[in-house]
Write a structure and sequence with these properties.
alpha/beta, 555 residues, globular, 26 strands, 9-stranded mixed sheet, binds zinc ion, 19 helices, 8-stranded parallel sheet, single chain
Length: 555
């Protein structure tokens, strides 16, 4: 059955299309070439005057795993205040800051997002994370498995194991956790926290594994990811999150990659200087310089927005430090076997608070100073900087200078005085928004058939009514197609589908399983036979599917 989407204005950066009026053809969930004469068009949608992009992709959003469950339990008020009633098509749910799984899928799809990636899945908790993502309807999903504070890796490093053995372990972790990429959080630091260390800078030795430093962890994992041919670079949440002066560490972390691809995540929280009377200043210009100097580097911003949210992070060290700022006053930190830890701390970001106001400005400076939209991705590190539902507002801040300046005029004056934001004229174009939220994340993750509208792509398509108020435009697309089916219409869910789970499966030597078997028997609660998440658990008799992203081993 052939569907024609007629006369829309297409923004498709992966194929170099910048606002051209074209027809799109969809068959069996895919975008296809224009039909030959005489072929019947079963359906037609007139999209004249409409803005058409591929479905949006969130490269970093916490939507599954134990810490999200903890965050939901910690904030019952969020769920009481934001009920999502059951409808003919939708299940009931609740929550705005940390919505329940079903509400998460609906809300993303209503905003034109068709794929979401959970960046911090614990290996031991992968099964639960996948079950939550299975309950997140419509959107495609995938997860990055967290290594770097796990005792197995730190032991390998302490005994100076060959890189090839580390690579086998990394590949085994990707496969057994059904992951798409590797994330490292406070490299080695979550483990060091368990030995009473309260900070661990890039070149500081781990208190228990003296030859292990965060730099060495980044080096060994960057190399593993590269040699295994995993498309997405090592996804790095660096040392010293939120600490004034951490910009110096962030710059040095770039050097630790040795020129190999590296992704620095929620870099807003890692871009702080110590200038000024309050010893807190913006390092955004230095990050922009680092991006210009290092073509191997990409970032996502982790924009902070004003209002109530909750931070949920694997970085127990940072979260323990943050507990004093909890609003409301409640928090939880936990240790997770020999793998890592996590911490949940609610925050209320205030535009009249000096630090929060400057954090907000630093995030926007990052977006606007980095020239290449292919290497900066739009995130709030949901829910850490703000709930993902604030994305349309963020897009307006990027696209509308006078709106941005009006908001800038309301923030704490000392913060405003330390920011260059008011002097930045740049406004993002629709094309650049399409790069940053579609084409670039798909490319970075290795998703060849997502994030674009070329022949062969999945028909994940978002259609907007052009409006001067970009927030209105982006919060309620006219149509959202997922795999060729209309799932949302004018911001309302009309059809609920199931997205696929994207994973990567690099080859490796199975001999690593012998070492892991012994280790797990001694130290873990789950043995190696039950640890891996099997394909059937995700496919679950048709309730999910797996899409294997190709990887090509380089060593
Ligand atoms: Zn995050």
């Amino acid at each position: 059955m052939l569907t024609r989407l007629t006369g829309g204005t297409i923004y498709d950066p992966a194929n170099g299309v910048d606002g051209e009026v074209r027809d799109l053809y969809v068959r069996d969930g895919r975008i296809v070439a224009p039909p030959l004469d005489g072929e019947t068009i079963a359906h037609e949608h007139d999209l004249s005057g409409r803005v058409v992009m591929a479905g949006a992709i969130d490269i970093h959003t916490h939507i599954g795993g134990g810490k999200m469950t903890l965050a939901r339990m910690l904030l019952p008020e969020d769920h009481a205040e934001h009920p999502v009633p059951r409808t003919r098509t939708m299940r009931s749910g609740s929550g705005y800051i940390v919505p329940s799984t079903f509400a998460t899928g609906y809300r993303y799809a209503e905003m034109g997002y068709t794929a979401c990636f959970e960046p911090a899945m614990m290996p031991t908790n992968a099964r639960q994370a996948h079950m939550e993502m299975a309950d997140t309807p419509i959107v495609d999903k995938g997860a990055y498995v967290m290594l770097g504070s796990d005792d197995f890796l730190l032991r390998l490093m302490a005994e100076q194991a060959e890189q090839a053995i580390v690579n086998d372990y990394v590949a085994w972790s990707l496969e057994s956790a059904q992951a798409l990429a590797i994330k490292v959080v406070n490299p080695g630091g979550i483990s060091a926290f368990k030995f009473n260390q309260r900070a661990l800078d890039l070149d500081e030795a781990h208190p228990y594994y003296p030859n292990v430093t965060p730099r060495a962890v980044v080096e060994v994992l960057t190399r593993a990811v590269h040699e295994l041919g995993v498309p997405h670079p090592l996804h790095v949440h660096g040392c010293n999150l939120g600490v004034p002066g951490n910009i110096a560490t962030t710059e040095k972390t770039v050097g630790a990659a040795g020129g190999l691809p590296l992704h620095l995540t929620h870099v807003q929280f890692h871009s702080y200087g110590t200038e000024g009377d309050r010893r807190f200043s913006s390092g955004a210009a230095r990050i922009a310089e680092a991006l210009n100097a290092h073509p191997n580097l990409s970032i996502d911003v982790g924009q902070l927005m004003f209002g109530q949210t909750v931070t949920a992070s694997g970085d127990t060290m940072a979260q323990y430090r943050n507990r004093k700022s909890a609003r409301p006053k409640k928090w939880v930190c936990m240790d997770i076997e020999c793998d890592a830890g996590c911490g949940i701390v609610p925050f209320r970001y205030k535009h009249k608070g000096f630090v929060n106001a400057l954090q907000w400005a630093i995030g926007l400076e990052l977006f606007l100073l980095v020239q290449d939209p292919w290497r900066v991705f739009l995130t709030t590190d949901h829910p850490n900087g703000a709930p993902f539902a604030t994305y349309p507002h963020l897009i307006r801040l990027l696209m509308d200078r006078s709106f941005r300046n009006d908001t800038f005029a309301t923030i704490h004056p000392d913060a405003a005085a330390l920011s260059t934001l008011g002097s930045i004229d740049r406004e993002y174009s629709l094309y650049e928004i399409a790069v940053m939220t579609r084409a670039a994340p798909a490319k970075s993750l290795g998703l060849a058939d997502r994030g674009h509208l070329g022949v062969g792509a999945a028909a994940d398509i978002t259609v907007y009514k052009a409006q001067r108020n970009r927030e209105r435009m982006f919060e309620r697309p006219e149509y959202v197609f997922k795999d060729g089916q209309i799932v949302a219409r004018k911001g309302k869910i009309v059809n609920v589908t199931t997205g696929t789970t994207h994973v990567v499966r690099p080859e490796y030597e199975r001999t690593i399983e012998g070492r892991l078997r012994d280790y797990m028997v001694r130290y873990q609660t789950v043995g190696i036979d039950n640890f891996p998440v099997r394909d059937e658990e995700i496919i679950a008799e048709g309730r999910g599917s797996l899409s294997i992203v190709p990887s090509e081993r380089r060593a």
